[in-house]
């Protein structure tokens, strides 16, 4: 397949695409040869296995911490529980996300190619989304680099301060390890994998921005054109239906393929924010840990906001398109005299055969059928699996719950 025109592909999309391809979470082409697939799967599976090893490591550490609390006769507080399971939640959510990324690598490549084809069939497709796509890429890469830099510096700082201290819970079946060895292992098996979420969220956000600015907006553009020129021809109606169906087909494919990814990003980001709230109140925090905590908040919020911004923007575009459809129907229904220029009394000439046979009643009937067939339950927005369509109210509710939980923990503290 020929590469898309450069004017339709932003630098941000190309850059994030290259990074994900190097990591094995995105294929080069929808149909790859066996050798290419083997190398890609090997890279992604190595990252996945490291993440799983870190998950087992943290489960054993949490069990040892709980047993230590119990043997000493201490009362286990909610804050203490959150502190002990913080890394378990982080590693479990990271492993789940990376598993989903590996599973959907080929599907994401196919989806990207479908979006390119969809934009190429649209003669009015343009690069008006490039600025937002580049901004999303800059945010994703900046957060990724900052998170990695903060974790590398603070973990090495803390490890060198303690020298060769052996971890108290590193008993068999684990070998005894120093804090420096643990820090290096966490950097390789947790920090890097955890930071991948913002790159993946950024790439999905770029695809959503591209879809919203082009195919999802084309129906709205055609409706605006019909409203401005005060007439609707048969070809206009056919074009409206065609571009709307094309956008709906892509949206349905996007939801079916990546609804689970959007849901996982949302749920894991919220869980991480909840654990961070408990972690922030723990008396066991050191200065390097507090700095890493700030970086974790930045990572989760960036991933969360990129995720919900793209989905909310699509829903806003859907509402705007439907409002313009109502406006066009209202124009045709309110006054027969305003639409005489497209009544069936037009002469059947080559210049006017677009309009011939399209009466006001027929236009109203077609627009009504168009609304019932292509709107309502069918949207160019994407629903989360098990969570429905995202709205600003959902985001406000989530942060309200987190603030309430924080106030509750302050009382316990």
From TrEMBL:
The chain crosses the membrane at residues 9-26, 46-66, 136-160, 258-281, 293-315, 389-410. Keywords: Membrane, Transmembrane, Transmembrane helix. Signal peptide: none annotated. This is Gustatory receptor. The lineage of its organism: Eukaryota, Metazoa, Ecdysozoa, Tardigrada, Eutardigrada.
